[in-house]
């Protein structure tokens, strides 16, 4: 994890999550291709929400990143947040999202694929298969 701060890396390890930055870069590229103004809004929000809180010691970096990812996915496509348990069972959740389980954004439109917003560092086969089936 060369691109991550020490606090962020520790937070990911504490919550058992993979680095979300590559997932969110892909979402940003998608948003940029769909709506340049929304992309600029996303960059500004990143600077205000993520960069600005990186130096705040009382804020969990993984929580900040997940909140940004939830907002970003919702900006691309309206939908809902869902956690995926180790056994592959889905459960609706709300913001702020829980830290630790697999988290996906499922669009309202049933003909659209979802977005993985957080993947456990030790994801089970059922979680990986769910991501392959439902998400980009």
Average pLDDT, all residues = 92
Strand content: 5-15%
As laid out across the biggest beta sheet, the strand order is: 2-1-3-4
Q: Write down how many β-strands occur, each being a DSSP E stretch of 2 or more residues.
A: 4
Fraction of residues in helix: 40-55%
User: What is the terminal-to-terminal distance?
Assistant: 23 Å
The SS-based structural class is: alpha+beta
- CA-based gyration radius: 14 Å
- Biggest sheet record: 4 strands, antiparallel
What is the overall silhouette?
globular
Sum this structure up briefly.
This protein is an alpha+beta fold and 136 residues long. It has helices at residues 6-15, 21-34, 36-51, 61-76, 125-134, and strands at residues 79-84, 90-93, 102-107, 115-118. The chain has a four-stranded antiparallel β-sheet.
Structural description of this entry:
It is a single chain. It is built from five helices and four strands. The chain has helices spanning 6-15, 21-34, 36-51, 61-76, 125-134; strands spanning 79-84, 90-93, 102-107, 115-118. Helix content is 49%, strand content 15%. The protein starts with 5 loop residues before the first helix and ends with a helix. The protein has 136 residues and is an alpha+beta fold. The model has no long low-confidence stretch (mean pLDDT 92). The protein has a four-stranded antiparallel β-sheet with strand order 2-1-3-4. A hairpin with a 7-residue loop joins strand 3 and strand 4.
